[in-house]
Amino acid sequence: MTSIMTGSAAAAGHETPQGPAAPPVVLEGVAKRFRQGDAIIEAVRGVSLTVEEGAFVAVMGASGSGKSTLLHLAAGLTRPDEGRVAIEGTDLAKLPDATLTRFRRRRIGLVFQAFNLVPTLTAEENVALPLLTEGRDDAIAGRVGPLLDRLGLAPRRRHRPDALSGGEQQRVAIARALVAEPALVLADEPTGSLDSATGQGICRLLRELSEERRRAIVVVTHEPAVAAWADRVVVMKDGRILAELRAGDDYRDAHSLAARYQGAVESS
Ligand SMILES: Nc1ncnc2c1ncn2[C@@H]1O[C@H](COP(=O)(O)OP(=O)(O)OP(=O)(O)O)[C@@H](O)[C@H]1O
């Protein structure tokens, strides 16, 4: 866990030939409402959040506080009623639906609690799928094998999901999320279906990937033991950001994070 204390949240100063790179995701005053019968639910209310390259951010909060909705807004799976979502400087509102879908496939990797692998395909076929969908067959040989190696899945590459453990299935899902080399990986309760030791292995892997590959990673979780791997923890309540906690200053491990999180929620 030492890397949490030393890990830098923001990769400031990354330059492209055009100048400083825009952050992987910027949310500005984003709001989302849902109708439930006669009631209007304000799931997310005026949230602003920037996640820099290489940052590992966790989103915590009680059930119904708006965490998944926030993640879906960042992924462009849901369009906001107010505010702006920009991925690497591209305003998602300016993209028509079909363009947004293609953009998402290229720039955003998604990981879910339920893995969502295709049951009839092998591990390597599942990982190759985003490249096939994009007509990037040329990239499959160079990317899928090395990624499976890196994630410790090489011996399992020809197995279908039902022959893999939960942790292996989630590693396949993470490989699939990374294969297009996205700017941003969004994970909704990625350890929710796993035992705690396997879940910690997945967290360690996400942490390493954020450091090695400079991906921005946002993880929604209920578990302090998962969030403690992050550089920053965003605490949500009733659709708003209640507090932001920083590794090293506000917490050093799952226990101190849980105490700080509880304190933030109780004092609100
Ligand atoms: N598609 C939808 N239609 C109607 N209401 C919705 C929809 N999606 C979310 N909501 C409502 O918006 C609020 C926020 O939901 P959201 O799923 O974002 O919360 P959450 O913090 O992720 O909860 P959990 O931890 O239980 O997954 C809840 O009141 C939920 O019932």
Arithmetic mean pLDDT: 90
The ligands found in this model are: adenosine-5'-triphosphate
Low-pLDDT windows of residues: 1-13
Quaternary organisation:
single chain
The named CATH superfamily: P-loop containing nucleotide triphosphate hydrolases
CATH topology: Rossmann fold
Determine and state the CATH class.
Answer: Alpha Beta
The CA-CA distance between the termini, in Å, is 29 Å
Strand order of the largest sheet: 8-9-10-5-11-12
Order of helices and strands: HEEEEEHEEHEHHHEHEHEEH
Q: Please identify the structural class as seen in this structure.
A: alpha/beta
Overall strand count: 12
Shape type: globular
CATH 2nd-level architecture: 3-Layer(aba) Sandwich
Strand content: 25-35%
Please estimate the helix content: 25-40%
Gyration radius from CA atoms, angstroms: 18 Å
Number of helices: 9
Can you summarize the main beta sheet? 6 strands, mixed
Q: How many separate domains make up the residues?
A: 1
Description:
This protein is α/β, with parallel strands linked by helices and 268 residues long. It has one domain: P-loop containing nucleotide triphosphate hydrolases (Rossmann fold, 3-Layer(aba) Sandwich). The protein contains nine helices and twelve strands. It has helices spanning 2-6, 67-75, 97-107, 123-133, 137-150, 166-178, 196-213, 224-227, 254-266, and strands spanning 15-16, 19-20, 25-36, 39-51, 56-61, 82-87, 90-91, 108-112, 184-188, 216-220, 232-237, 240-246. Strands 8-9-10-5-11-12 form a six-stranded mixed beta sheet, with helices on both faces. It has a four-stranded antiparallel beta sheet with strand order 4-3-6-7. A two-stranded antiparallel sheet has the order 1-2. A hairpin with a 2-residue loop joins strand 6 and strand 7. The radius of gyration is 18 Å and the shape is globular. The model is unreliable at 1-13 (pLDDT under 50). It binds adenosine-5'-triphosphate (ATP). Adenosine-5'-triphosphate binds next to strand 3, strand 4 and helix 2.
